[in-house]
Structures are given as C-alpha cells and as structure tokens.
Amino acid sequence: MKQGRTLAGLGKELERQRKARKDFVADTRSLELASSAGRSELAVIAGNDRQEFPVNELAHQQISARLGIPYRYYQKMQAEQPRLLDENVNTWFRETSERRMIRIMDGNVRAFLSDRYRRLDHLELCAAILPVINTMKGASIESCEVTETHLYLKVINKRLKAEVCTGDVVQAGFVVSNSEVGVGSLKVEPLVYRLVCKNGLICKDYAQKK
Question: Is the dihedral of CA 156, 157, 160, 162 positive or negative?
Fold first, then answer.
C-alpha cells in the first residue's frame, strides 16, 4: 500500500463522507432504472416522492449480478440499447421483488446490497480502533487511505523487530481493511515489514475477518 493520506487528512475525508452519504432500504418494485447515452439513473419511489441518483460502475455490477444478467451483455445494452437495459432491469425488479439496501455517496448510487447487509462504516471503525492503536507501545500508523471501495490502515510496531540476515531488519505490524460497499469483509492481517525496501509481506494464513 502506498503512503496515501495523512491521518488528519483521512479523518477529514471520513467526516466529509459521513455528511455526504445516505442509505435507503426499498422494495425493488419501488425502483426504476432510466438510461441514456451511457449514463443511468436509479429512481427510488415512495408514494409521490421520487428521488433519482446516477449509478456508479460497482452498483451496476451488483445490479447485474443480483438479477442474473451477464455483465458484458449488461454493458452492451447500456452502450448500444439503453432502453433495452431499462426494460430488462425494471422487469426483473418487478418480477423478482425483494428488499435491497441502496447506498448513496455524493448523490450517486455506490452500492446495491442485501437489506441484511451489516454496515460497518469507516469513521465508526476508526473511532473504535485508533484509541487501541494509540495504547500500543511503539506502534505507529505507517500509511492510510480510503478509496471508493476500501479503507486501509497499515500499522507498524517499531519495538517488535528482528534481523533475519545481516542488514535486513524486519518489524511486526498489521493491516486493517474494510469495505462499506460489499467488496470484502473487515480484515486484520499480520504484516512483516522490511526496513531495507520499505515494503511488507502480509501473512494471510493468520488473518482475521468478519
């Protein structure tokens, strides 16, 4: 993982995202896709209230997978026959109705998930784990980043180190990663960090996830 943001910068971005996010749980019969010129909007309809949101690529992939439409064909319809895409999606929304969670960020649909999806938002996760990291003697956050799909924190403990061969010193650490949009679970993975190349080896056999 590259250096990414400072911890202060990460906190500022997560605070911004908290204000910019919105979630709906809706029956698919109250959803409607409308596409044109390679762009799609998803309408969430509740009585006389209708809210429309542009759909990002990940949400398109999740809609495609849930409705059983091969994604390459989904993309072909979106590019060449947008009305056909809308007819396919909206028909299956009605015919295979279920409750889904629609996650919105900055006015765009970022995820199309089960209504039972257990949300663990990045800001709340950081609020829980950063105080614990601060109590670890010698521990420091080497790098952190938030992307459209994941949060990453790489923590190194400079007191836990060993020389595996002459001049090659390693330190112990771990990587925390989380997704708010259904792309993987919360994971904590042990890390062996080589000072000589400023790189790390993640030990997946000992990882914990939930």
Answer: positive
Residue type, 164: V
* Residue-wise pLDDT tens digits, 71-106: 999 999 999 999 999 999 999 999 999 999 999 999
Q: Between 169 and 93, whose confidence is greater?
A: 93
Residue that has been written with the tokens 């649909």 in this structure? 109
CA distance 156 to 199: 11
DSSP structural state of residue 42: E
Residues whose CB is less than 8 angstroms from the CB of residue 146 and which lie 6 or more positions away in sequence, other chains included: 5, 10, 13, 14, 17, 122, 152
C-alpha to C-alpha distance for 182 and 113, rounded to whole angstroms:
7
For residue 33, what are its two tokens?
């896709």
Q: What φ, ψ does residue 192 adopt, rounded to 5°?
A: -110, 120
pTM (2 d.p.): 0.86
Q: At what angle do helices 7-20 and 122-135 cross, to 10 degrees?
A: 150
Q: Do 134 and 80 form a contact (C-beta atoms < 8 A)? A: no
Q: How confident is the model at residue 14 (pLDDT cuts 50, 70, 90)?
A: very high
In the numeric block, the tokens 């994604």 are attached to 71
